[in-house]
Write a structure and sequence with these properties.
Layout (H helix, E strand, L loop, with lengths): L9 H20 L7 H41 L6 H19 L2 H6 L4 E11 L5 E11 L7 E9 L17 E7 L7 E9 L2 E9 L2 E3 L2 E12 L3 E12 L5 E12 L6 E13 L2 E17 L8 E18 L5 E12 L6 E14 L2
Antiparallel strand pairs: 1-2, 1-15, 2-3, 3-4, 4-5, 5-6, 6-8, 7-8, 8-9, 9-10, 10-11, 11-12, 12-13, 13-14, 14-15
Helix pairs in contact: 1-2
Length: about 350
């Protein structure tokens, strides 16, 4: 390459190839038959050199575009040079990165990190009253416990902070207590919680394990909970995760559960696809279906409760999250639409904003 010249772009390289290929026949025909033997030999040598040059150029281009095609398809059909262990390690890393970035309920329920989160929540809905709230979560290690005990404060808001000192039958009481992360045994990770939901004592046990199949990680989770207010509750979740491309996570989720004093069993199916574009920006698509074997609700415009068995809500949402101004300050925007049995499956549009201030190992 001549000094000072810029390298050819892919487009220029393609046009150069075409021009060289079509100019070859014209160059050969342009040789005059009246020239002498010496001139004919020279022309033949030049033509041979020209043919070899074009051939070498086309061969290089073939190898180049083959490499480009290979790089483009590796994210779709997989990299044959990656071992199963390296693929599983990359998938597990992506699972943790995605859950941590979007602050999913799964991450908050299983993390051992020390953190505090102050969240400002604004929620505008089409068919329900708009809401604005402040939410606090806290997770701190106790000294000299080898990091197996954690003090936690969950779902403390300006509306329910008074429930810490007085009785209240609302289901969103703040929870305060201690988490114990037991050593892994037989591939099962256990977490036990003891504390208060409002002023009501409660205990909780969470068990999970990982199963690796092909390019998938399957994680079943079983939770048992008992409180003096709500009595007994249990739930089961199955997470099916895979990494279609680097920086992306596709997840299918199945869940079911029961609660004392509530008829029937609730269940659901969810799908999400997340993209982590950088440590500061991410996007996630969510599609979920919620059902119950005996869903009790009050129809829009009605006064009496009715019972229904089947899918009672279809939820579609898009979440965009990024940090702004400082690395510990995040904003999250979530436009969504729901189709609920309560509103005869009419569209119910909403948009939600989170402003998170994170402290510690967030």
């Amino acid at each position: 390459m001549i000094a000072g010249m810029k390298p050819l772009t892919h487009g220029c390289r393609i046009w150069m190839t075409v021009l060289l290929a079509f100019s070859l026949p014209a160059a050969i025909e342009a040789a005059e038959p009246e020239r002498g033997a010496e001139s004919a030999d020279t022309n033949e040598t030049n033509a041979s050199t020209y043919v070899d040059t074009v051939h070498d150029y086309l061969s290089d281009e073939l190898v180049h575009w083959s490499s480009v095609l290979d790089e483009s398809l590796v994210g779709v059909i997989g990299d044959a040079n990656r071992t199963r262990e390296s693929r599983m390690a990359a998938l597990e890393k992506q699972r943790q990165a995605s859950d941590r970035f979007f602050q999913t309920g799964k991450y908050l329920d299983e993390t051992t990190h020390t953190y505090a989160r102050l969240r400002f929540d604004l929620w505008a809905r089409q068919r329900e009253a708009n809401e604005a709230n402040v939410n606090v979560r806290l997770h701190l290690p106790l000294a000299r416990t080898r990091h197996r005990l954690r003090i936690f404060v969950n779902d403390l808001t300006e509306d329910n902070v008074k429930d810490l000192i007085q009785a209240n039958d609302q289901p969103d009481n703040p929870k305060v207590g201690v988490n114990y992360f037991a050593p892994e045994a037989f591939g099962i990770v256990s977490k036990y919680s003891l504390g208060f939901s409002g002023i009501y004592p409660y205990v909780r046990a969470r068990y999970s394990t990982l199963v690796k199949k092909g390019d998938w990680i399957i994680e079943p989770v079983q939770i048992f909970e008992y409180s003096t207010r709500d009595d007994f509750a249990e739930s089961t979740d199955f997470y099916f995760d895979t990494e279609p491309r680097e920086g992306e996570l596709m997840r299918f989720q199945l869940n079911r559960g029961t609660r004392s004093h509530e008829p029937g069993m609730y269940y659901g199916f969810g799908f999400s696809y997340s993209w982590i574009f950088s440590p500061h920006t991410g996007l996630r698509f969510i599609q979920s279906f919620a059902g119950d074997t005996e869903y009790v609700y009050t129809p829009e415009g009605g006064d009496e409760q009715v019972s229904y068995s089947g899918i009672y809500n279809i939820h579609t949402a898009l979440e965009y999250r990024r940090n702004i101004w400082r690395k510990w300050l995040f904003v999250q925007v979530m436009p969504a639409v729901d189709f609920s049995r309560q509103y005869d499956y009419k569209s119910d549009f909403s948009i939600r904003f989170y402003f998170d201030m994170l402290f510690g190992n967030y």
